[in-house]
């Protein structure tokens, strides 16, 4: 722009004034709506960083065994009857490596037990007036369940405890095994890279 031209200088000044007034009017409108306008002290205004989009992947899993029990206190989906499908998947984190003595402490429920098994607890669904929930652990435990009944009982108890904690119910420990390894129609589960950041999956 030719700064020596007084007409151009006046026009440029008017444009800046108009933009300033428009900006102030927009700020007042934002504040009146209960929001805080974004302001920057930088000469070249920086756009706030946006969080990365959460990418979800399908959770592939294999059914292993299914048990049925009752809600003694509270209900999920308006029914007290429940089936829990215990499944395994490579996508679930492995339990930490530990000495067998530490694993047995967890099986026995010792107060100083530190070994823990990550487990995914799915959303409840209704099937034939029964609430069905999938509980999924890492596939490395499947062979141990076949060889060691204590491992299977531990995973059963873990499933019950996690469901109780997540859905605020009390479940009967007098459960029975279903004839099918998976009760109901197979559910579709999804996970993201942050799904297993916390112990409450």
How does this structure look, described?
Residues 30-53 are annotated as: Disordered. This protein has 201 residues and is α+β, with helices and mostly antiparallel strands. It has 2 domains: 1-50, no CATH class; 57-191, no CATH class. It has 4 helices and 9 strands. The protein has helices at 6-32, 100-108, 142-147, 149-167; strands at residues 57-58, 62-73, 81-89, 120-121, 125-127, 130-138, 170-171, 176-177, 190-191. Strands 2, 3, 4, 5, 6, 7 and 8 form a 7-stranded mixed sheet that branches. It has a two-stranded antiparallel sheet with strand order 1-9. The termini are far apart.
How do the strands and helices of this protein lay out in sequence?
Blueprint: H1 6-32, E1 57-58, E2 62-73, E3 81-89, H2 100-108, E4 120-121, E5 125-127, E6 130-138, H3 142-147, H4 149-167, E7 170-171, E8 176-177, E9 190-191
Parallel strand pairs: 3-6
Antiparallel strand pairs: 1-9, 2-3, 2-7, 2-8, 4-6, 5-6
In summary, what is this structure?
The chain is an alpha+beta fold. It has helices spanning 6-32, 100-108, 142-147, 149-167; strands spanning 57-58, 62-73, 81-89, 120-121, 125-127, 130-138, 170-171, 176-177, 190-191.
- Note the run of SSEs as H and E: HEEEHEEEHHEEE
Number of strands: 9
Number of domains: 2
- How far apart lie the N and C ends? 62 Å
Give me the number of helical elements.
4
Largest sheet, strands/sense/barrel? 7 strands, mixed
Query: How large is the share of residues in beta strands?
Result: 15-25%
Structural class: alpha+beta
Silhouette: elongated
Work out the radius of gyration.
29 Å
| Poorly predicted ranges | none
Oligomeric status: single chain
Q: Percent range for helical residues? A: 25-40%
Average pLDDT works out at: 85
